[in-house]
Write a structure and sequence with these properties.
Layout: H1 2-6, E1 10-13, E2 17-20, H2 32-38, E3 60-61, H3 74-85, H4 100-112, E4 126-129, H5 132-144, E5 149-154, H6 158-167, E6 170-177, E7 180-181, H7 183-193, E8 197-200, H8 214-226, E9 230-234, E10 258-263, E11 275-278, H9 281-295, H10 300-310, H11 313-340, E12 345-346, E13 355-359, H12 366-375, E14 378-379, E15 381-382, E16 395-399, H13 408-420
Helix pairs in contact: 3-10, 5-6, 5-9, 7-8, 11-13
């Protein structure tokens, strides 16, 4: 009866009985008035990224931005959530900047990478945020501001492009490659535009998986200092290392030029959604004020659970296993592509992260290839979403950490046959 009532098929009248509801006449709904009221969307923020689509269970989804559940520290996360639920934290509000112990953990990790002579960040410099996406929006609003130029790598993370667009900043693309951007390009762009910030992913960038050369990192930090500007360093893949260790540029800076973002979403759990911004001076205060205006504070329950996970001895063991699984999956996908779609080019073997950035043969129409692959059961992410301006070539992004690796050969075969058919 409850189910019938929930479906709206019957209604109960207490003391009288239960009756079949009169059939509802289906009225066509028309929200056209809203389009007139809202006007045309100002930018691409009206659409969701292709990476956010939910795929049917039988397809091979290579488009997602997350690792598969079986790569996550499931036991640690479940135990941590249960432990946190038993404490006071389940019923109290957390400070706006975050739980002090978690702030200290994020700052401590960065401090470990700081060379002698650099004053490391402290827990107070770390602001806990609910995923780094929200941090990007706050940083662009608070540090750059509407109408102001922001240097940004090309290609770069589509979510950063969305956040920047929503914050109303003006994007200045800087081409980036397997070693990072050319420091001379960065210097020139700062000089020409008077920008006060550069958003970059020096470590295992999304989408390419590239890591900046150490000299590039030093040169860009010098440039940023010379121009009295900020480097917004998005260290999204800190825990997703494969062939190299992460080397945060923020660890080299103690005068507040680097605003550092570090997320646990992809390595602990997408359901915990805990990240941090590490910033110093007035930039820290402004970002905190923006976060407080937007969401007041992050659930202490999730913060406590995240801290519990990353301070367990099992966390380090998990990261070692995670690295090996990422390596095996990456290599399997690369060899499947080399065998089945040899006309495609991988310009950068990803040293970390979750993705292969694949250049299709010249003349390939990306939207056609993506559509045809999808009709045959493989979902790819079209590369245009990662470019702040026109795409530099026919690229697609393939995630090697989410789909079943046993189906990589099949997926590469489908891509190869779509390309062979032209
Ligand atoms: C480069 C980069 N930055 C930020 C984010 C957002 O991360 P979070 O899940 O912490 O919001 C992502 C997500 O894929 C990303 O790739």
């Amino acid at each position: 009866m409850r189910q019938l009532a929930a479906l709206g098929l019957v209604e109960s009248r207490p003391g009288v009985g239960t009756f079949v509801r009169a059939a509802r006449t289906a009225r066509p709904v028309d929200y056209g008035w809203q389009t007139a009221a809202l006007g045309a969307p100002p930018n691409r923020t009206a659409a969701l990224s292709s990476t956010q689509r939910t795929a049917a269970p039988d397809v091979i989804g290579l488009h997602s931005g997350y690792p598969a559940v079986d790569l996550l520290p499931e036991r640690l996360v479940r135990q941590a959530l249960a432990r946190a639920a038993r404490t006071e934290i389940a019923l109290t509000r957390s400070p706006a900047a975050g739980l002090p112990a978690l702030q200290a953990w994020f700052a401590g990790e960065l401090a470990e990478a700081a060379p002698a002579g650099v004053t490391p960040a402290t827990g107070r410099d770390a602001l806990i945020i609910s995923g780094s996406q929200s941090g990007l929006s706050s940083i662009f609003r608070a540090v750059v501001g509407p109408g102001q130029p922001l240097l940004i790598e090309s290609p770069t993370y589509w979510g950063a492009l969305l956040a920047a667009e929503q914050a109303g900043v003006v994007l200045v693309p800087i081409p980036t490659g397997p070693q990072g951007p050319d420091p001379d390009d960065v210097e020139r762009a700062f000089a020409q535009t008077g920008a006060r910030a550069f958003y970059a992913q020096p470590t295992f960038a999304n989408p390419t998986g590239a890591q900046w050369a150490a000299e590039t990192s030093r040169a860009v930090l010098d440039t940023v200092r010379r121009h009295g500007a900020f480097l917004i360093e998005d260290d999204w893949a800190h825990d997703l290392a494969i062939d190299a260790e992460p080397r945060p540029i923020a660890a080299l800076d103690d005068d507040g030029h680097v605003v550092y973002l570090r997320s646990l979403t992809k390595s602990v759990s997408p359901a915990l959604r805990v990240a941090a911004v590490i910033a110093r001076g007035p930039a820290r205060e402004r970002i905190l004020a923006d976060r407080a205006a937007e969401s007041m504070y992050v659930s202490g329950l999730l913060q406590a659970a995240a801290l519990d996970v990353v301070t367990q001895p099992g966390w380090r063991t998990h990261l070692r296993g995670f690295r090996e699984q990422l390596r095996a999956r990456r290599d399997l996908l690369l060899s499947a592509l080399a065998a089945q779609a040899p006309e495609c080019v991988v310009e950068t073997v990803p040293a970390g992260g979750l993705n292969v950035w694949l250049r299709l043969p010249e003349g390939a129409e990306v939207s056609h290839v993506v559509r045809e692959c999808e009709l045959r059961g493989v979902i790819l992410a079209p590369g245009a979403e990662w470019f702040p301006a026109e795409p530099a070539g026919p690229y697609v992004r393939l995630n090697y950490a989410s789909a079943d690796p046993a189906r990589f050969a099949e997926a590469a075969g489908i891509l190869g046959s779509v390309l062979a058919e032209g």
